Each structure stands twice: as C-alpha cells, then as structure tokens.
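Researcher: Go.
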Amino acid sequence: MGVEISSRTLVKKVRKSITLAGAGDYNIFKVTGTVQVNLIYGIITTAIAAATTDANLNLFPTGGAAIPITLGGGGGRDISSYTVGSYLSRIASATTMFAGNDASTGIALHTNGNIYSMFVCGQKTGIETHIRLSVAGAGGSGVILWVCDWEPLSDDGLLEPA
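Model: Structure:
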C-alpha cells in the first residue's frame, strides 16, 4: 500500500476588506467547486455606524436563494457602533448568530467557551456563488477585514476574494 501525497497546498487563508454603505448584501468570497471553511471571522478596522443591524453570513448563488451560514432574517448580530478591533466569528450552526465582541470592552477570542464551527460549501452548478455578508440595518459606514481559512474538497475547489 502506498500513500498518495498531493503537490498542492491543502490549507489556504484569504482576506478581503469590505466597506459598509448601508443596508444590503456584500460579496466577500467567491466559491468554486466544493471547499471546507475551517475558520471565518471579521475584524472591524473602521468603526461601524449606529443602526447597523441583523448582520449575518450566507452562501448566495446568483439568481438563487441564499443559504444561511449564520442566523439572519431579523435574528442576526446587531453590530451598531462596534469599534476598531472588535470581531465577528462564526461559532456554531447556521441557526446561531455571530459571536461578537466590542473592542471597547476588551476582547479575547473564545472566552465564552465557544469555538468556531467549520462547514462545507459548494458552488451551485454553473452559477457564480459567493459567501456574503447581509446587513438589514441602515448603518452607513464601517470597514470589516474578513479572514477565511479554507481547503479544497474537490479538484476544482477554490475560495477567493470576490
């Protein structure tokens, strides 16, 4: 019996900053094929405006229905007035909102005993598919640096900034 070793890197990390400009959907990463997301989190790099509510992540195939990654639809995270250094992280199933800690109170990741929850996502056949942030509230400013640690599960598996 032999062991087959792939010559490609299996674990990858990508980053993308998004600037909020009010309520709406913001494509963060584009998914091709099938990938495993080991960790995804956002760090606030410019303070978030007041009234920025129901922040959530979903997988969105263009022209299709969004698939929840974190709780949304009125149950997402209120990130109003989060300061620089605050973070958002996915901690459990799609029925749970982001863990969120405001840097103004001092933060340490995982202090509540929860850890991130990896998940598998795939591109809808022949359709451009994104991991996106949706924000229902009308806050009109703020920048979030998103970081995603991922690995391919299919030969064409790719996750890249959108």
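Model: The chain has one domain: 12-161.
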